[in-house]
């Protein structure tokens, strides 16, 4: 049986079911780490990998890779995803008025935030996407995620795991050096990921966390959010599934809302086919809406594209995703 095509042009644009199924079967990792596994490809990050990553810290310079968490965000209410609402429950005004009930003049401020867990920079957990009713490692979706949350692969299991060697692939700068931005609908291929790595002089290895910059966030900052959340964007082609599998990377993140190219690569109805392959079948953790612009400038200035990356999720019990403030340390 031949392997699925790794050329975007080789995708049968009329048959998403067959194209997804072929890759799900070819790259399925069910049972690879045992029937009780809850981490998927995050298992590729071991102690030795973290020691290797720590050795990349030479200056102590830190770059945050997070977008803001505030009402000026890209969300428009799709599937009840809204921007964060930040509310003060105690303020300096209350302290000045002396109405907080504290003794000897002490005052304080408190606040609360309400937000979907995937409204800004975030990880998709392994309970986020299902394939024909199955979740990661071949479990029934309904046995994994219920109204009580993800009972098996909740994001809390990754809280002490996601620290590793990060590698930035600035595909936008590689393919469009004049603008540093890829056009909407551009499907990044496996060959282009490899070519970008070669041009930057960086290798991709087991346990790495790969960050792919498309320039989509840079354009949204310049022109306004527009259709950033859910609209057209460059992203990974479905045909990169084989690359994501054989490189044995631990996780991947992009500066886009959806990680994969949008519109998706079919002329008939489809929705996020690469998600359907890599999360429930491969066990790959995906990051979205990361801010990679300052990181790209920092990497280019140093002529080095790898760094220690710390990106733990909040240990929200039973969550299928988590907001994060990932940091790259040089």
Automatic annotation (TrEMBL):
Pfam families linked to this entry: Cyclase (PF04199)
Annotated region (Disordered), positions in chain: 68-98
Superkingdom per UniProt: Bacteria
InterPro entries recorded: KFase/CYL (IPR007325), KFase_sf (IPR037175)
GO biological process: L-tryptophan catabolic process to kynurenine
GO MF, any single term: arylformamidase activity
Protein name: Putative cyclase
Record organism: Microbacterium pygmaeum
